[in-house]
Amino acid sequence: MGSSTTPTQLDQVTRFCRQFLQYDYDVELPDGEILREADVQDHLFKKLFAEDTVIPLPPRRYRLRILKQLIAVIEGAIEDWDEHGISDDLTSSLAELISTPPLPEVMELQQKCCVTYHLSLLPPSARHADPHITLLESRALIAAAGTTGLRTWEAGLHLGQYLCTRPELVRNKRVLELGTGTGYLAILCAKHLDARHVIASDGSDDVINHLPDNLFLNGFEGSDKIAPMDLKWGHALVGTEEATWNGGRGVDVVIGADITYDSRMVTALVATLVDVVSASKEVSIIISVAERNKASYDEFLKACERRGFKVQDKPFSLSSRREQKGPFYSDATPFHICQLRYGD
């Protein structure tokens, strides 16, 4: 964008782009006085609506809805049509999106699409000038196969933010993620937080089968830095191709997000944590819980107490929605970051 764009205006544009690429339905458009500038419109077209953009775009229905809003704000802000106008590229994109028949909304929700999460708490680096994670997700709450693991949940984003502020917790460590789902946290640890090795485990065959797509999108095709693993809670940790679980290699850190939501699985989850601790004596366990269901969280605390774990809440303030710069998630839900210690 041009040199006339102020830092405050640039922040608005950057935030809007990040919300758009995260497929955020509460996206906040920049002020009309910013959007009516030709260089801003050119930037938005190239980044968000050009078909050859570098980052995969959200579904057409979403792009159409946001582009209609965008053009309406631009029109409302133009006082002199000799001085300002609407980009031909944006109007052409709108025409193309309108002329393309959309899928039924139910089908579109079940389809997987690319969602990009920007990691605003991480500084740019030589390897990652714009730290982000792009994932193929199903935006339906429950996918057609019955799993909830094909979208990234807010507790995972919250735990990711916590780890971004404390990268030493996983740096050069062997990490096991329980209930990996889309692989957001596993990829964060391996790609941006310099974990030595990450096991991305889940008990859903559907999740494990889809995980290679997200590893590929983030540069881990053929890499041995992340290993998908079918791990069903409550089952003994046994080897498959290798004689012993994980080839006898221990783990240093266990992470998990939103893994206590189902009270029926809490006993099995804690049993697996006991098995992991038995195999890796000095392991650190960090989980994030969205307190949507206090009863299941209380059941988790009781199960931990019965099996010899002490649960400590780790203070971590949640940025308000207005202050977030990516990733974006609700500031209305209480989250707990918990550290579990065994036998202390």
UniProtKB/TrEMBL annotation:
<keyword id="KW-0489">Methyltransferase</keyword>
<dbReference type="GO" id="GO:0005737">
    <property type="term" value="C:cytoplasm"/>
</dbReference>
<dbReference type="InterPro" id="IPR019410">
    <property type="entry name" value="Methyltransf_16"/>
</dbReference>
<protein>
    <submittedName>
        <fullName>Methyltransferase-domain-containing protein</fullName>
    </submittedName>
</protein>
<dbReference type="GO" id="GO:0032259">
    <property type="term" value="P:methylation"/>
</dbReference>
<dbReference type="InterPro" id="IPR029063">
    <property type="entry name" value="SAM-dependent_MTases_sf"/>
</dbReference>
<dbReference type="Pfam" id="PF10294">
    <property type="entry name" value="Methyltransf_16"/>
</dbReference>
<keyword id="KW-0808">Transferase</keyword>
<dbReference type="GO" id="GO:0008757">
    <property type="term" value="F:S-adenosylmethionine-dependent methyltransferase activity"/>
</dbReference>
